[in-house]
Specification:
alpha+beta, GMP Synthetase, Chain A, domain 3, 114 residues
């Protein structure tokens, strides 16, 4: 979340919106993996402005991921459907590359990585 130049009320609103964005991200799944994209570690950055603009940097498990065309659009749509969000920009990046080490402990347990 962008914290510079925000007063306390704006910061509180942005923090609340940030939490709702993360909740929305947890409803998005890679169609081949039964774990949400946030727990998979596919979300690298979420920035929320006081005005409700949301910027997400994400990756995919591989450049040849079958969901490469649909998943970023789904993420954008879900974020833009959140009350208080004015616009969402979702950018897919490949650096750093995703690896299983980026997964949360819960995702590793779910997928048997321990």
């Amino acid at each position: 979340m962008i914290r510079s130049r925000m007063n306390d009320a704006d910061l509180g609103n942005a923090m609340e919106l940030d939490a709702r964005v993360i909740d929305a991200l947890k409803t998005c799944f890679d169609p081949e993996i039964p774990v949400n994209i946030f727990e998979l570690g596919l979300i690298y950055q979420v920035k929320v402005s006081a005005e409700g603009a949301v910027n997400v940097l994400m990756t995919l498990t591989s450049p040849s991921c079958p969901a490469a065309q649909s998943l970023p659009g789904e993420v954008k749509e879900k974020i833009e459907n959140i009350a208080g969000v004015t616009v969402a920009d979702v950018e897919v990046v490949w650096d750093p590359p995703w690896s299983p080490e980026r997964m949360s402990e819960a995702a590793r347990l779910e997928l048997g990585f321990f």
